[in-house]
Amino acid sequence: MAAPLVIRNRNFRLLFTAGALTNLGDGVLVLAVPWLAALMTRDAVAIAAVAAAARLPWLLFALPAGVIIDRSDRRKLIARADLMRAGIVLAILLLALGDPAPGAIWALAGLAFLLGSAEVLRDNAAQTILPALVDPDDLEAANGQLWSTEQLTGQFIGPPLAGVLISAGIAVPFGLDVAVLVLAAGLVWLISLPPQVPSRARFAQALAEGIAFMRGDALLLRLAVVLGLANFIAMATITVQVLFAQEVLGLGAAHYGMVLSAGAVGAICGSLLAPRAMRLIGTQACLFLSIAVWGAGYASIGLSNSGWVMGLALTAIMAAAMLWNVITVSWRQRRIPPAMLGRVNSIYRFFGWGSMPLGALAGGALVVLAEQQMSREMALRAPFLLAGLCCLALLIYALARLRLE
């Protein structure tokens, strides 16, 4: 029996460990940033603006990031992006240490935007570098292990850890994130890669080549659009999730962190069991199942009065999300030529992730508008209930138009 990939492949082990560290820090920020925002204001739109600012770079910079990745040493790019993120989180730490000023929430939004900008480069480069580190036959296993570790550290360990750290001081979780980002950058720097031939085309020409490839692949484009709509829906709920947990379910920081960790359990299971599920019921059926579970999970949260129900629903939603990711990311890494992987992958994620800031703003705006017609509680439930209906429409479209080759 062959040794696990993370043991027998040094380069993958370094990327895997660095990813585990950065995702631990990201998981701490998942709770710490909105919690800090909620300490600064109770305005749902202002809190949504912080979430939107963190995702806006995917809309603004995903396309040029792909060209930069194909023209750069991807290993160095990942390491430098992590160091940039460490500096930005340090600035958030200093903001958290100060007394909340009237405009502090907008300073936090600005720093979230800078953090998201560095993340665009880091995440795209990390996903693009993987085919150079592992054999093609190991892609599903490698992606599954990366996604499961991301969820273990980023969602299962990170949020409850943040809840504990916040009790010691709101600035403490940000200090931890600075430390792990610096360590992760050092690990990535140790990765050894064969010489790569960067794209020598002019910037505009290189970008046009990637766009032309994307336009010429109808199935790839449809998958990107469906992902974009799914992420729009997800962000509309995530944006108001902290207010829903606090005001409707009455959860504190530690208990809310545990609810987020329940989602991570599902994500870990979904990541590790995805290859087996694909063998048992088929890749196509798994794709449709993912969307159906999302819709059922959102509706369950919208109807719930319990943190337990919310935790179970997030478990199912995240398991389905990881199943979708393992299928589509591995399929994409095989389908796109290596020399164009950075550009096309970034264009794909422009569609798939660029919708997230719009979804974040939509979630906050929906609560504000709904409050004019109904109670605060029903207004906070509305994004989840509407998300369930939208996923039903998305499933109908997928059944008609998404047929993996």
Automatic annotation (TrEMBL):
InterPro entries: MFS_dom (IPR020846), MFS_trans_sf (IPR036259), TM_effector (IPR010290)
Membrane topology qualifier: Multi-pass membrane protein
Cellular compartment(s): Cell membrane
SUPFAM superfamilies per the UniProt record, alphabetical: MFS general substrate transporter
Domain Major facilitator superfamily (MFS) profile: 220-405
Gene Ontology MF term list: transmembrane transporter activity
Keywords tagged on the record: Cell membrane, Membrane, Transmembrane, Transmembrane helix, Transport
GO cellular component terms listed in the entry, alphabetical order: plasma membrane
UniProt protein name: MFS transporter
Annotated source species: Ruegeria pomeroyi
